[in-house]
């Protein structure tokens, strides 16, 4: 169903089996929505989609209390769940909604429950948010707040397909025969069981120290900070960034057929795990620097 984009597919699967959320960034029409829908069909999980628009309200996401009347005429509030009550939630064009509505996902993403009318409602397990956003330069977009960005396990940039990949896309989508998705997992319990397997992968202290060095090197005030971090970074990566490096490293080790994490696994996850957690200052933005530039320099200074 998905042509090319191997790194994007791998990153999304990595987040699924670590329990993290993914932010997919790219211009419209690159197959971001198709990727999420295909994932839901392949792993046999319940799937919901929310199209974020400027007039979307928080209650449209989490649900609301409505007045229900029983057969005896007694009235009481009854909770009507919103589309967030699912296994896979596609938040399409999340940065087209106002910050108030964007923040409605914060509690659900971090705590796996929502609070409506003073009552908590647990979300199904597993619960994974796959959000898509357009580049901030496009019209009608609101930048995501730093607190919400930090809730995403990975931020993945979806590139434009090459000429060969574009030919393949046209061959598959403009002919009579359409590809079909086969289910590869039985139910949600299998995903939860595989998540437990990931956490059992051993990690030596030396590799964990490498992950810590990479995270601290993004902090401008740290003695081991990279020169570009000292000059262009306002805030460095949070402890969640270090957690993402370790968990993603365990996944990449398993995908490579190993039962232990290597420094190369940590380095492979660094860009996607840290790019949205490194916030540039005014000087960095004025000079056209990106967080990827800073992370690239850190990886060169601390080779695997």
Explained architecture:
The protein is α/β, with parallel strands linked by helices. The protein has 2 domains: 6-187, P-loop containing nucleotide triphosphate hydrolases (Rossmann fold), CATH 3.40.50.300; 201-301, Magnesium chelatase subunit I, C-Terminal domain (Helicase, Ruva Protein, domain 3, Orthogonal Bundle). The protein contains 14 helices and 11 strands. A hairpin with a 2-residue loop joins strand 6 and strand 7. Helix 11 crosses helix 12 (263-274). The mean pLDDT is 85.
Radius of gyration: 21 Å
Under CATH at level 1, the class of the largest domain stands as: Alpha Beta
- Output mean pLDDT: 85
Tally of structural domains: 2
Summarize the amount of helix as a percent range.
40-55%
| Biggest sheet character | 5 strands, parallel
Dominant shape? globular
User: What fraction of the residues are assigned to beta strands by DSSP?
Assistant: 15-25%
What is the CATH architecture annotation of the largest domain? 3-Layer(aba) Sandwich
- What is the number of E strands? 11
Structural class: alpha/beta
Question: What is the count of helical runs?
Answer: 14
Could you give the order of the helices and strands? HEHEHEEEHHEEEHEHHHHEHHEHH
And the CATH topology of the largest domain? Rossmann fold
CATH superfamily of the largest domain: P-loop containing nucleotide triphosphate hydrolases
